[in-house]
Amino acid sequence: MIVLGKIEKMNSLTDWERELALLENKSNLRKLPVIRHLGKEVEVNGKVMLNLSSNDYLGLAAYLPLRTEFLQSLTPDTFLPSSSSSRLLTGNFNIYVQIEDLLARLFRKESALVFNSGYHMNAGILPAVSDARTLILADKLVHASIIDGIRLSAAKCIRYRHNRYDQLEQLLVSNHAGYDRIIIVTESIFSMDGDEADLRRLVTLKQQYDNVLLYVDEAHAVGVRGMHGLGCAEEQDCVADIDFLCGTFGKALASVGGYIVCSKTIRDYLINKMRTFIFTTALPPVNLLWTFFILEHLDSFSFRRERLKRISSLLKDALVKKGYACPSTSHILPMTIGDSGDTVLKADFLQRKGFYALPMRPPTVPEGTSRIRFSLTADITEEEIKSMFIKAYNLAMQDKERLLVDTKEVIELLANTEALDEKITSIKNDIDIISELVRKLVKHNSTEVQSQEEYQKKYNDLSERYNKLKDELDKLINERAYKLGQSTKLEAFLKEMETAETTIDTWNEELWMIMVESAMVHKDKSITFKFYNGKEIRIYNQKAIQN
């Protein structure tokens, strides 16, 4: 029996090893990086890079003067690194009461409740407030922690298409009478696409029914949106109309934990029913003191919110001009590539150029939508980069003729789509053939008596072949469009360079967008600019080096 037990254990381990190997083959295997934080930069594997993957959106976690001020307020009596208990036992320190009172005042809500993390929050609230007579209508792209909460609940769930409120409205019309309670669940700023929900529209839909509640996760919005940094709900003036208004302290607010602002009834109910609140050790008081400190200063960070908005707009414009679809309306900017392997290679390229930008792959995002996710922080400034670009531009234009020749060669390569055109034509022909087969199959089924099981099998097989070909066709068309788009951009670059001044003394955004492929910020604050013709120029405060 012991031997058999060992064999079974070994087989289980083998299965896991096999699954890990499969993940690696698909370029979806994850590993923990060893990181040393250097303010707005990180050091990974001995390489210093500009951090474009942090959720420290306001740059507060890396802002030393703020930490110094906070540490000066601590004493041996207030520095308590552990609560040593759940809140329902002895872990409910007075600082919890202070934070929750402050949150309620800031949001002008009846009450608030703090949780150990955003995950605890989302995984615990919905199971606590749902039963078999509850329907959850959740946006297709809500965070994994919300999905886990839905799965742990007894409620039925329908996922509506992302931000498709017409579909949501139809679901409300057809289901509101069949349930005691319906909860609409959404994020305000979505973590992977960086786009946002129309909260006012959702409030309007909710208010049409007495049994509909609204749950909004502001994890990526609190701190960075709204006049006072309270999130999209403040910005869209609908805080009072959201039943479950949730957020986290672990992103823009540079701390740890999650929160909900809500009615007193909901707060009391969660305290009694929410398992991820009841059965866990409370946060250490020292962390709560830091959170309270940040919340008290929240209103004063408006300049950081404005800076973040400006640099986000600059990067989005750059991505769009390079041909990438970027649905973002926020500081989270996806560069969608599709294939996981290609995305990993692109991330490696960016890291070699000095940008710590990480690939987002399944299961974090759907299959075929792997992307680089740029998370910008207000700690990244423009002024140094702009002044150094002027120097790099002036140096590059000393070899203007070579720049023009190289560009013409690249344009010729990009404009040649003959091979792609042949593939596209071939697949279109195959699609036409399958479409005709489907048409004949459906016609035959409508006029002749036959096995419906056999008919359905044939129909499904043809549909699968059709969909695969259509996906392949879409990829080829997109590739062709990308090449031609790049060619068009380089033609604009060429035209601009032919008439451009050989020197400039002020910032020129158009030249920046046209000329620069990447800019790598080094530990010594020098910057390497890579131009589209392949030339690399490293700019120091007083000198420049060409590669």
Which characteristics define this entry?
alpha/beta, 3 domains, 547 residues, 4-stranded mixed beta sheet, globular
Can you walk through the features of this model?
The chain has 547 residues and is of the alpha/beta class. The protein folds into three domains: 65-300, Type I PLP-dependent aspartate aminotransferase-like (Major domain) (Aspartate Aminotransferase, domain 2, 3-Layer(aba) Sandwich), CATH 3.40.640; 385-410 and 501-546, no CATH class; 415-499. 49% of the residues lie in helices and 16% in strands. The strands form four sheets. The chain has a seven-stranded mixed β-sheet, with helices on both faces. A four-stranded mixed β-sheet has the order 1-2-3-12, covered by helices on one side. Strand 16 (527-531) and strand 17 form a beta hairpin. Helix 3 runs parallel beside helix 11, helix 15 (400-415) packs antiparallel against helix 17 and helix 16 (418-447) runs antiparallel to helix 17. It is globular. 32% of the residues are buried. The model has no long low-confidence stretch (mean pLDDT 85).
